[in-house]
Amino acid sequence: MTLHSEIAAVTDRVIANSRDSRAAYLALIEREREGGVDRPMLGCANLAHGYAGTDEDRDFMRPAKNMNVGIVTAYNDMLSAHATYYRYPEQMKVWAREAGITAQVAGGVPAMCDGVTQGYPGMELSLFSRDTIALSTAIALSHGMFEGAALLGICDKIVPGLLMGALRFGHLPMVMVPGGPMRSGLANKDKAAVRERYAEGKATREELLDAEIAAYHGKGTCTFYGTANSNQMMMEAMGLHVPGAAFANPGTKLRQELTRAAVHRLAEIGWDGDDYRPLGRCVDEKAIVNAAIVLLATGGSTNHLIHLPAIARCAGIVLDWEDFDRLSKTVPLLARVYPNGAADVNMFEDAGGPSFVIRELLKAGLLHGDVMTVAKDGMAAYGRKAEIEAEALVWREHGERSGDDAIVRTVDAPFSPEGGFRILQGNLGRACIKVSAVERDRWTIEAPARVFSDQAQVQEAFKAGELDRDVVVVVRHQGPRANGMPELHKLTPPLGVLQNRGFRVALVTDGRMSGASGKVPCAIHLSPEALGGGPIGKVRDGDIVRLDAEAGVLTVLVDPAEWDARELAPAPTPAEGTGRELFALMRHGASEAEAGASAMLAMAGF
């Protein structure tokens, strides 16, 4: 199928904007391949230290021609999605021996759970945990002991962080190894209903806790289509998984065989073979555009409007919100998964899942098929369903229709002819909005502002009945430089309740909203942020704010002369405690959201 002209045009724009930086990146990984630190050049004492921790593999590792894979793991048993990785390294070492290679745990990276920290001080460390993960990945791979890597991570900041660090070692072949979602518990819609009842004082804390435990009940990722599961969709479209690895449940034969296949595939794509596939070549402009396309086609998390540009910049690629906006007007919405629908990711997988979506997009010329992937058969392999047959891993072609067209649809009968993202611009700056779960009659909101400096103030005003009216809730000083840009997840229930009461409600913030945000229109990632002199700092209670997702407008209806004369609201004193003061350097050096909201990238000149 011929590539759609607008997909081609956006890709050409990305290539043109990235020309110099991508060339510099490719030169870097070529230098690292030819003259960087690797095992043949290490001294004997250095090698002895690297081999000392292993027993049965030591003699096989000594000849430098025998491939050694570094495992970078985000295991911990506090985070349900990453608890699944507990036994992975020892299993992977066995599977490595089957393939004639060896494997070592190169290092661990932190993996915090936004579900635990939402609404509390720890959430202000969340975004910068991504940079910390990237730096930790670089430390793990810095030893020169590895000819390839397996990256074990799944959740919100972990996958972007792993990739950001790993791409600086882009001369090595690498495979992303997910762990899969937990099995379905309490339906996401029912969980959200209990949250809203609790926000109104109609449910007790015990009832809420029972509902939350019934929803988040076991090992694996959460089952809604938030940032973590959007990660997995994008990794499939970038060709960095073994095909079909995204949503196989933990503890199943299919999950085990997909992980085994990942280790075996690393043995086949090493740099001494005839199928060398380095990460830095796999992650090119077309792969980055593919990730953006599937994110839009499935109504994925808005967090990736920060994460994907940051990943791209680590590979010398410049992606911005204009690219997302243009793609969104071209790419149809093919999936409805909570919060963009009633289904969870297990139902999505059963109905066809990522492979059905990818098959449909390829068929319509809406996805690049000519990208280097870790799979031997290229992107076409990601359009087939992974299954176990006679104890063996196989991939099957999909039928013409999905298993449930209320969840996944063909490209000729989409839920919407467009994706779910828009840029908003005006005298407040530049923001983005996810509209795939917002009813069309809510795409335009014009109402008086009520201004806050944190989400706790919003909750207090809600409980006091002060927001029972048409209102645009403005929450400022939530950007990366102010407090680390926490997700404002605690605002979802009260804003949802206000909308249910019939009021016309919207949120405007320089912070982030959860990947699970949905039905309330939210203008987020507003740039420049308040602390950087952004005009959101000029908004006053009662100002009329117009949010128009149809026209792409976000503006305050104030006389221009008065607006220009207004002073910015003073910034709050930086908070201390919970380690937040340790991240002051990252806050002070952070870039704007559209450039990835990263201090690490800004300091490195990306």
From TrEMBL:
Enzyme class: lyase
Keywords carried by this UniProt record: 4Fe-4S, Carbohydrate metabolism, Gluconate utilization, Iron, Iron-sulfur, Lyase, Metal-binding
Gene this protein is translated from: edd
Source organism per UniProt: Sphingomonas desiccabilis
Protein name: Phosphogluconate dehydratase
Catalytic activity entry: 6-phospho-D-gluconate = 2-dehydro-3-deoxy-6-phospho-D-gluconate + H2O
Function according to Swiss-Prot or TrEMBL: Catalyzes the dehydration of 6-phospho-D-gluconate to 2-dehydro-3-deoxy-6-phospho-D-gluconate.
GO molecular function: 4 iron, 4 sulfur cluster binding; metal ion binding; phosphogluconate dehydratase activity
Family per similarity comment: Belongs to the IlvD/Edd family.
GO BP terms, alphabetized: D-gluconate metabolic process; Entner-Doudoroff pathway through 6-phosphogluconate
Keyword Lyase annotated: yes
Domain of life from the UniProt record: Bacteria
Binding positions for [4Fe-4S] cluster per the UniProt entry: 155, 222
NCBIfam families in UniProt: edd (TIGR01196)
Catalytic activity, EC: 4.2.1.12
Pfam families: ILV_EDD_C, ILVD_EDD_N
PANTHER family for this protein: D-XYLONATE DEHYDRATASE, PHOSPHOGLUCONATE DEHYDRATASE
